[in-house]
Design goal:
Strands 2, 4, 5, 6, 9, 10 and 11 form a seven-stranded mixed beta sheet that branches. Strands 1-3-8-7 form a four-stranded antiparallel beta sheet, with no helix packed on it. Strand 9 and strand 10 (101-102) form a beta hairpin. It has strands at residues 3-7, 10-13, 18-25, 33-38, 45-50, 56-58, 66-71, 76-81, 90-96, 101-102, 106-111. The model has no long low-confidence stretch (mean pLDDT 96). The chain is mostly beta strands. It starts with a strand and ends with a strand. The protein has no helices and eleven strands.
Amino acid sequence: QVQLVESGGGLVQAGDTLNLTCKASGMTGEDPMGWYRQAPGKQRELVARFYGNGNTTNADFARGRFIISRDNNKRTVYLQMDNLPTADSAVYYCRAYWSKTWGQGIQVTVSS
C-alpha cells in the first residue's frame, strides 16, 4: 500500500519561507501528487497539485507565493511556501490521487 510521509513543517515568522517535503513509498507508476491544508474549523482545501500529464495548478491564495515541484525518481513532491502570512497556518497534507492516499499531515504555524 502507498504511504506518504510529510516533513519540513514547524513554527516560522511571518514573511518567512518554508519548504515541505512528501516522500511516497509503495507507489506504482506515475501517480500524481499534491498538497492540501486544513485550518481549525475550516474545510480541507487544495493548495497545489500535479496532474497525470505533469501540469500543475495552484489555489488562488497560493498563486505567486507557493511553488510545487517533484522528483519522480525519488517519488517525492515538494512545496515551497514564500512570504508566509499568519493565514497560512494550518495542517498540510500530502495526497496521492490514483492510490487515494493521504499523508498524516504536518503542522505549519506562522507567527507575527
